[in-house]
Design the sequence.
């Protein structure tokens, strides 16, 4: 069974994390970290608590517990996804600061050359944001903006979210049936 880490930070767009979690929860061992602001947004955007990120193959970790098992390079995973990724979190990771579990695990993921997918959900982007995203890209992270496509004619908010989630799953090498590959019409 695959093992993945999902980190939820304080940027709007919790639907992306929840749809990814729901798709993977019965297909992989999941380790979930929710920042304090992420928990606030779960309440605001989903009218729920962090318990909505629980299940049989799921371990919820406190963001303050920097010495958790998942913070070690010996804890092998198929990758980490920070979704949604706040610009503050991305800036600290880009700067090598590991003051929370999310930041530490991202740092370890980069140093171990594992997949780190960050899904920023911010607009517009400042020069500082762009420099931090470039630094993360140069360190080996994949920058996957929460920017859904429309060629599949989405009919709901879930369809829009699933487009981004499908791209995340593709990059985690997880087969998905959320969105078919693009096929041009002749």
Sequence:
């Amino acid at each position: 069974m695959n093992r993945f880490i999902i980190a939820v930070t304080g940027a709007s767009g919790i639907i992306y994390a929840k749809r990814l979690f729901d798709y993977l929860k019965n297909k992989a061992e999941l380790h979930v970290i929710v920042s304090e602001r992420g928990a606030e947004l779960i309440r605001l955007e989903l009218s729920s608590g962090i318990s909505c990120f629980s299940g049989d193959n799921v371990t919820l970790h406190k963001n303050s517990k920097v010495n958790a098992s998942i913070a070690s390079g010996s804890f092998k995973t198929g990758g980490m996804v920070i979704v949604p990724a706040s610009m503050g979190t991305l800036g600290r990771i880009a700067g090598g600061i590991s003051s929370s579990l999310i930041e530490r695990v991202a740092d370890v993921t980069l140093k171990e050359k594992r997949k780190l997918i960050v899904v920023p959900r911010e607009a517009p982007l400042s020069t500082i944001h762009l420099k931090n995203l470039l630094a993360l890209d140069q360190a080996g992270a994949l920058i996957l903006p929460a920017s859904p496509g429309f060629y599949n004619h989405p009919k709901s908010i879930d369809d829009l979210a699933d487009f981004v989630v499908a791209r995340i799953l593709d990059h985690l090498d997880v087969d998905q049936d959320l969105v078919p590959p693009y096929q041009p019409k002749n």
